[in-house]
Design a protein that fits this description.
The chain is of the alpha+beta class. It has helices spanning about 35-50, 55-60, 110-120, 125-130; strands at about 20-25, 30, 100-105, 145-150, 160, 165-170, 175-180, 180-185, 190, 200-205, 210, 215-225. A hairpin with a 2-residue loop joins strand 1 and strand 2.
Length: about 230
């Protein structure tokens, strides 16, 4: 039974009245996408659900862009799109199978529809202004990713990588941690310290390499979704 049944259907109360869109770097945009209250309830639902899985398992819910048995699966060091080359067989930095750091919205029925409506109402119109030829065809199933400072089985950061998507979105869900943040080395830009509900969206591709900086204490939660 849901702890907060009110978050499983769309409401204007889920989003701030002033979304404060800002261009942080060329085509890297920040926006206030969720209210802090919606973020709090979302995390309470996620922890109550408890179906945390490895990144490889989480990726199996997403669209497969390239054929092959494994090359689209992300790992802690090599996320989606970094293994599209069939000849790449270096697994020395791969996540362990027990690294249960992600929770898919597939485990929280109903929330995908809420998230999708928020994106369609508030992000897609802006994306069409910035990239007029872009037409969203599908969304990856969103998932919550957690970083925990004092748990050796859970990642504390993520190496610099690039996303195989038209547009990538990261929503920051809490601020009870130190360190952390999304880092874009090309612009020496750190994003994600603007409080719960702040989001960044940007084009996928090698030109927008980024990583997650190490958290020093606490837990950091982000919601991740790619659009195609």
């Amino acid at each position: 039974m849901a702890l907060h049944s009110d978050i499983f259907s769309y409401s204007p109360a889920h989003v701030p009245s002033d979304m404060g869109l800002t261009e942080l770097a060329p085509h890297v945009y920040g926006i206030k996408l969720f209210t802090p209250e919606f973020c709090r309830k979302l995390l309470e639902e996620a922890e109550a659900c408890g179906k945390w899985e490895s990144e490889e398992k989480i990726d199996s819910y997403g669209p497969r862009i390239h054929p092959g048995p494994h090359e689209c699966y992300p790992t802690t060091a090599k996320p989606l799109a970094c293994r599209i080359n069939e000849k790449e067989d270096d697994t020395s930095n791969d996540a362990e199978p027990d690294t249960k750091c992600g929770l898919s919205f597939a485990s929280l029925p109903g929330l995908y529809g809420v998230f999708s409506e928020i994106i369609d109402r508030h992000v897609v119109p802006k994306a069409r202004e910035f990239w007029p030829t872009y037409k969203m065809k599908r969304k990856r199933t969103p998932y919550i990713l957690r970083y925990i400072a004092n748990d050796y089985l859970i990642p504390k950061d993520m190496e610099v990588h690039w996303d195989q998507s038209a547009i990538a979105t990261v929503v920051y869900l809490n601020d009870e941690f130190s360190g952390g943040g999304t880092y874009f080395p090309r612009w020496d830009l750190e994003a994600g310290k603007n409080g719960p509900g702040w989001a960044v969206f940007y084009p996928g591709g090698v030109g927008y390499q980024h990583g997650a900086q190490t958290i020093l204490s606490g837990r950091r939660y982000v919601l991740v979704c790619d659009f195609y």
